[in-house]
Description:
By secondary structure, this protein is mainly β. It has two domains: 3-240, Oxidoreductase, molybdopterin-binding domain (Sulfite Oxidase, Chain A, domain 2); 247-362, Immunoglobulin-like (Sandwich). The protein contains five helices and 24 strands. The longest helix has 9 residues, at 19-27. The termini are far apart. Bound molecules: the ligand Nc1nc2c(c(=O)[nH]1)N[C@H]1C(S)=C(S)[C@@H](COP(=O)(O)O)O[C@H]1N2 and molybdenum atom. The ligand Nc1nc2c(c(=O)[nH]1)N[C@H]1C(S)=C(S)[C@@H](COP(=O)(O)O)O[C@H]1N2 is lined by residues 46-51, 93, 95, 147, 149, 160, 189, 202-203, 205-208.
Amino acid sequence: MSELDTPPVGTSASADLTPEELQLAARNHGMPLEALRYDLTPAGLHYLLVHYDIPEAAPDTWHLEIGGAVDRPLTLDLHALQSCREFSLPVTMECAGNGRARLHPRPVSQPWLFEAVGTARWHGTRLRPLLESAGLRSDALEVLFTGADRGLEGGEEQDYERSLPLAAALDEDVLLAWGMNGAPLPPQHGYPLRLIVPGWYGMCSVKWLRRVTVLTAPYRGYQNERAYRYRQEREEEGEPVTRIAPRALMVPPGIPEFMTRNRFLRPGECLLEGRAWSGHGAIARVEVSDNGGRDWSEAALDAPVGSRAWHRWSYRWDARRPGDYELCCRATDVTGEVQPLHPVWNLGGYAVNAVQRVLVTVTAA
Length: 365
Ligand SMILES: Nc1nc2c(c(=O)[nH]1)N[C@H]1C(S)=C(S)[C@@H](COP(=O)(O)O)O[C@H]1N2
Ligand SMILES: [Mo]
């Protein structure tokens, strides 16, 4: 029996999406790749992922509780929060499952291809001063963030909640956000309040945030212990999924064919452009290939849109010769980490940052 005959539970060796994957794909959505043109992704084009349902939120009765291993637990309503010192920051956020649908066998979950990313300016206040004014106890180890949404996952009924190591929660750029791109948070992005953890995959940025609990022991809940771990087999403990791996994406050039989305282009020079980002720091270089990754050329790289946000890149592609091309782009970040050419498999389909491939036909004129 070949490996593909016995996929681990929760994967599919079939090219066809299951009805459950289609259901998820129709509720959640990616950022159309042409929206890579914007420095800040308009809210409606930002990717969206909601595990359960968008909860009802009455702003007048909303409270955020800050408790656990603190000396002075706090309860803040929206008005009290919004009278804290304002802070806003452009942040590139990406779902840990981005790229999952290109694995074989495919982990059965939200079937992202490339587009589970977006950059918004998030408006709110820094988390750190609030934790400090609550008085962190010396044995504080982690901080747990709980949303108002509830569901079943892996057979467990749960509030959506995720814990962060204390040092990560104390990062100066972690924010409690009530605004997105200068407007109130839309319901689907966490109204009235969400956490934003720059540099970490999206699952850490808990939406509809209602409770912050300082913990003195490692959190053992579902979203940290069972989901979001790099594993080859279900029984493995695995390593936690944390920061965003580097990735570059391009705006697919030319015009698409409706069903295949393959691209068609008249001969001539073509300006390729896109974005690149990493949760480990800035991007050091972006390279472009027009032959599926055999040869690479250096793209021009702009300064990032913000210290925690993507860079624009561009490349003048000589597309004068008619024919079929496989365009690729790949990013290397300041730590030297570079995107792999082919997807690297793991059970949950996390951080699959293999290079983007775009099939382009340069027509005869
Ligand atoms: N409360 C809550 N927070 C959540 C989620 C959720 O389902 N519930 N999804 C997480 C995941 S997996 C991602 S990738 C991001 C997506 O944020 P966005 O929909 O605003 O792009 O939110 C995170 N925060
Ligand atoms: Mo996600």
